[in-house]
Amino acid sequence: MNLLVSYDWLKEYVGLKETAEEFAARVSLSGPGVERLYPQGADLAGIVVGHVREIKPHPNADKLRVVIVDAGKKLSIVCGGSNVKEDQWVAVATVGSKVRWHGEGDLIELKPTEIRGVESEGMICAANEIGLFEAFPHAEREILDLGASVPGAKWKAGMSLAKALDLEGDVVMDTEVTTNRPDAMSMVGMAREAAAILKRPFLWKSAKAIKEGKQSLSIKVDDKKWCPRFMVVRVNDVHVASSPWWMKRRLISAGIRPINNLVDITNYVLLELGRPMHVFDADKITGHLHVRLAKKGESIAALDGKTYQLQSNHLVIADDHGPQSIAGIMGGEASGVTAQTKHVIFESALWDPVHIRRTARDLNLSSEAQALFEKGLSTESAPFGLNRAVELCQELAGGMVASRVFDSQTTKYKPLSFSISFEEMNSVVGIEIPKKEAVDTLKRLGFDLKANSSKLTAIVPWWRDHDIESGRDLVEEVARVYGYGRIPPMVPVGLASRPQSSELLWEDRLRTVAKGAGLTEIYTYSFVSESLLMKADFDPSKLLKVQNELSSDFVYMRTSLLPSMLQVIAENQERFREQQLFEVAHAYFPHQEKQTELPDERLQLSVGYLGGDDVWKKAKGFAEHLYQECGIDHVEWHRLENDPFWHPGRTVQAFTGDTTLLGTMGEVHPLILQRFGIEGRVAMVDASLEEIFAQAHSTKRYTPLPSFPEAKRDLALVVPLEVEVQKLIAEIKNVSRTIQHVEWFDTYRGEGIPADKKSVALHLTFSAPDRTLETKEVDEMMETIAERLVSSFRAVIRA
Amino acid sequence: MTFVDKLQALAQTANRAIKQAKTLDELQELETRFLGRKGELTSLLRGLAEVDEKERPALGSLANEVKVKIESQIVQARVGLSQGEMQEQLHAEAEDVTEPGTRPPEGHLHLVTQAMREITEIFSRVGFVRTRYPEVDWDWYAFEALNMPKDHPARDEWETFFIDAPPSAKMGKVVLTPHTSNAQVREMEQKKFPIRIINMAKCYRRQMDITHVPMFHQFEGLYVDKNVGITHLRGIFDYFVKQFFGPTRQTRLRPFHFRFTEPSFEIDVSCGICDGTTKLPNGEKCRTCKSGWLELGGSGMVHPNVLKAAGLDPEEYSGFAFGWGVERSYMMKEGMQLDDIRTLYKNDLRFLQQF
Questions:
Q1: Contact status of B125 with chain A (Cβ, < 8 Å)
Q2: N or C terminus of chain B: which is more exposed, having fewer CB within 10 Å?
Q3: What is the span of the domain harbouring residue A468?
Q4: Tens digit of pLDDT for each residue in A122-148?
């Protein structure tokens, strides 16, 4: 929550000697944070008070006149203002000052100029041309008549306008107040903070109690839970008018537009005390004031000019005709104060924060009052606001208090009280704060204290009865005023109670492996659209769904990273005809048996290659590389033929121990690629890393180097197309334990080989641990191998 | 001609021929012609049998001298010739060495990965271990246990996504975690002390514009033990900031408010552009910072109610916690001004391959 604080105004309640800059720097480190400073009147440099001496017709234009103004010196100014007249006090922009032409666009520096052939030595300004429209609203072509706008002020020709309007020297501070401190969302609240932090005297005095009238108001409050306190008082015979300049100036400095003195008073009390108020036109209230829930079908035209349909859980203040105010949020237009108002009822109430919050959300309606009520105010704040409003009313609008003060609160307020030991306080801070300093700080913040040598007991001032919830909260009060900068930093030495999980370690290694293999890492959103899922042939109905999605692009929590990656490939394909990508992220699987369990989050790897005919080999090659890096050998490969996502002839799955799936890799089905508009071939790896990491190990094993020479032979054979290399190799290895390696190095299809066959070439390595193998021995093994392959696979041996 | 004359003539012929030889092949031929088994010197030596027996030893040694001389001449000539030939070959092999080299495959890690690695590493050096907790979690861990009861206005600050699933009576709704702070109570429940963790995870918030993405990453630090104070929090931040941003950077705490910490702080880092002076070397005002400081993020001492929610006794244990955006911190560190934070998740390869 931000508050615009006029430094001049603030100084009325606290004896400050600092400049605004010093104030901002110091208070921000111990209390509300001053985010920006706006020196007031800076835009008014070179704009002075002028006195109109003479008005002459413009020789060349009917609507313009030549005005002789005393602005310290005599100036001749061409002016088009419809209301300019002799002996008038006006705002004169002298050459070099900055104005906003017709109140629009940027500030523009004024230069000596000629208007329709007559020289003009400046400009007589309209309020909107010098940023004062809110203070002095006017019709088009009307210049600012200072005398009429600020009655009673003393003007002097040539005086700076900023000074004449009391703006000079003031600085408005844009201040952030944390949401737990609505009590500080006001000038008096800020003054309290400043007084405690800067150790300056707090000067604020509350308004005197109201001298009550005789009339008894007829009020009914249905439920005290929703409205813990309701206070009203009637004032008769008020004079509705424009507020005096001092009040307007303060309202404007805080960003509030003046309306009329009575409405301004309620806003002024809001700013001064942080106490929302409402004022009714008493003549527009028929019968009882009734705090109740809205009835079905009721609506209200509020002060913002909009009509709100109320629901039966919304609180209203109603009269016999219906709702006159949306409780704690906004008043109704029908009973608002107008220029014709004669008698008023001031209301100062307290509302249940949760109720206010729900209603504001339901109606999509917010206001300054609502923001404060929903943060939580004290019931004790109500009379302070009512007293001050009536005091201001009598000062600015006259009137007689006609009624008794109605107050729904009947029991006496019991302040909160909390204790904390000095030991606990010092333990939380980490150093010892002198007891006297702790005690003094709390006292300056308004706490009533009882302290002995070991602990203190603090009675919480009413304006803090929402944010101080325990003794621990007192530590913050003491420590922040003491100064966090005075608490020395200390690095706590020690070790965590456990090492990093192996999943995280392997995940990190995996990324290194992928980068080393030339892949580029992508990060895509975990939620996907229905259309993306459909394109990739995933069934959305089995996925977790976001209840309040941001847009149709982010609806389902994905169970696979592949669709998002295809999207990325498609988006980049025009610029990159070859791509190699990877992503590591969680996928979210609804819990299968129990919907009442959290979803399973499984870490997934996706890899994608865009390119030519060999991409499936790259994908598989990467998977093999990864398994090797993870120390996983003995991987079994099984063809995957009937998954609509994958190319039936170019997809394989890796298993260990026959049942544990380590991953699926291969080409993506051309139909899917078509739907994504991808040209070329894409091969991907889809792997659940849990399974891989569970088998991964980084322990290194050592196999002694062969002591006797190895024998190497090549084998080329022609086999039917469906015979898989993996099976050939297994069969060969079965022949003898002296066969150390069987390595595939080529497969050939085409000329010289029948169409249903392929030629496969292999390197074989033989060795025995205890002797040199004889040539004859190896030859015999080669023969055995050939025989087996011929009989098992109908192979024809070529060499 | 005497034997000696013949020998000298042979030596001269050989010397001349060797000098004239142009290639290594020619030399090879000469070696065979003069010194080979059927060569001229050998056949000359056969004539030694006819010489007087007394003169034989002297002549023999003279013949040997000639042989050695020819041999050494051949060796010398060979060195000369082969050097020349190699020179020619090297010359012929010259390449345009300004052509690009053949590079190994060049991969790229995403900025978020790089940031998380660096942060993990820095904290591991002071004994904080990286952990992982659910990214889709119960309302209880995301809010309620963190001292944020239902309908509390503080919840509005987290624009939270909910999962369309029946709520649990005990744990509430299922949410996409809007912060990493759900790790706090989950970690503390295990009651293994000291708790020194950095939890990193994806977080989700319902907002998207040039400074917000609906999915981002946070790192959450939590230190809980006996006698943990604000001094420790300051110590860890000072250390982290100097490691992450640079040794000259300063930190400061400002009071703030979060429901799950008490007291709560906003952490500022001195501006790296103007070095905290608010003025640039050329005298202009620094546009990067507010009065010399940059907001890093929130932190605080773990609220007693949060300790209680995890079953810990606040009289016995205390701690501090913080949770900051990975992306934001890294951008701040690198002084990288991304016009639009969504660029990080657009996956334009022209962007990704810059890192």
A1: no
A2: N
A3: 418-486
A4: 999 999 999 888 888 888 889 999 998
